[in-house]
Each structure stands twice: as C-alpha cells, then as structure tokens.
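Q: Trace token order:
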Amino acid sequence: MLTSLWTLALAASPHAAPPPPSVCPSIFISPVTVTVKNERGLVLGTAATGSGASRSPSNTLKVSFQKGADGRYTVTASKRWYRPTTVRNVRVQESRCGPVNPPHLTLTLRPRPDAPLIRDFQIRSTRGDGSGSWPAWTSYRVFLDAPASVGRAVTWHSSRPEVATIDRLGVLRTKCLKTLQTTVITATLKADPTQKATARYSTGSARIDCRKARGQ
C-alpha cells in the first residue's frame, strides 16, 4: 500500500526541468586592451586585440599583440621618436564565452635621445553636429606632444571661409552650399609658428534648405 502511494506521489510531482543552455553575449570582448602614455603621463593612444590602435591616420603609434602557444600575450607599443616597450606573459583567463575579466595594460613610452622638442602636433575633432541641418558645426582641438614648457595656444585658419569659418576656440561652422565643397583647416602653434597641423573638411548638399538657418 505504501509502495503504491509513493509511486502515485512520484507520478503526480512535476519533473525538474533541465536548466536552459547558457547563451554567450553577442558582443566581442577583447582579450587585452592597452593605454599608451608618454613619460609625462600624456595619453598617446589606446588599442585592443582585434582592433589595432585607436589613432588618426597621421599618428605613428603602433601596438601589436602576439598570442603564444601557451595562450599568453606579448604586447609591444612603438611610436616615432620613442623607444619601443614590450610586456610579455600577459595571462588572459577564458571561459566558453570568451575572456573573463580581461586585463587592461598601461604602457609607458620614453623618448629617444634624438627626439625633438615637439614630437607630435595634430588636429583632432572632438564633437560635432551630424544632423545634416544647416548650419553644421564641428569642434576641433589640437594634440600636442611636447614638454609642459611649450605653450598649447594656436591660431585657427580656414582656407575657404566661403565654405566654412573657424573661430579662435576651434569651432567650425559651415556655410549653406548646394554642392560639395572642401576647405582646409590649419592650426598654427603660437609658441613655434613653423609647427602647423591641417585637416580637411567637406560640406554641401543639394538637399540642404538654405532659406533659413535651423532654430530661426
């Protein structure tokens, strides 16, 4: 009798469902990420395995990642006017879904004895208006790799102010143009006027309504 009741109880109780299979995230997680700085702590760039260094085309920063047979990484950073630096035996813990708590390294580059006072001078875009409305604007800044004694102030110039103007703070504003036009933006370092950085900016479209500016 007891056996029959136990059998009925087992039949009536729901079976425990197997746990659902774990789903790995669809985003790519880089096994190793790197921030490269110079001897003064200035960030020269960032990099990650699979994506290379984050930099502008004129930048000479290079970061390489080599994975050994033991699964450990060797990371090397180099840049013009600097001695290369290498970190070896970077261990990355991995699960079925990829890296677990991937390491972030900070590599410091030190200048070569023959490095000039100003090692790098570039124009970089920080933010802008990508709505396609008129007038559009873009904010520029300069990247200067030089000792702190070198002033950071620059003068801005647009080669074609009828295409776009740029003010003393580096804010570019476009004119309303029905055809694609290009201007060259130049930043001149006040501390050394021989140091110039340039960037090209294009604007204009037949779809722009030039009858009034946005917000008016």
